Amino acid sequence: MISYLMLFASVTMTVVASTLLKIGSRTVNFDGGLFSIAMGYMTSPVIVLGFASYALAAILWVYCLSVFDLSHVTFVSSFQYVLLMAVSIFVFHEQISLMKWAGCIFIIIGVFLWLKG
Question: What proportions of the chain, in percent to the nearest 5, are helix, strand and coil?
Fold first, then answer.
């Protein structure tokens, strides 16, 4: 059971990291040179926290790879697309097309079938 919690935590931390980086990217000035942009990344607490979330997700991911089959872990990780769609709607107020909804439904069905198989 703890292994599945770690897998869910890894997927969730990846979504959290993407969300933080998206929020943080709004604070970085992209008009300067490469050094200026890099400094903007390193001085933005939200971006630093996003990178730290990715690092934690990677540590959890390695643990999951040691416990589950690669095909299992990789397939379950596709559920992050569903979570990212929810973040897109509720946090960023993005519009989701009918085709994206259909794809999301197929992903959910696929993950469910994969776990049952």
Answer: 80, 0, 20
Sign of the alpha-carbon torsion through 22, 28, 33, 38: negative
Burial class (CB in 10 A: 0-12, 13-18, 19+), 87: middle
What does DSSP assign to residue 44? -
Q: How far is CA 90 from the centre of its chain?
A: 15
Phi/psi-derived region of residue 93, left when phi > 0, alpha when psi is between -120 and 50, beta in every other case? left
HSE toward the beta carbon, residue 51, CA cutoff 13 A:
9
pLDDT tens-digit series, residues 46-55: 999 999 999 9
Other CB atoms within 10 A of residue 64 CB: 23
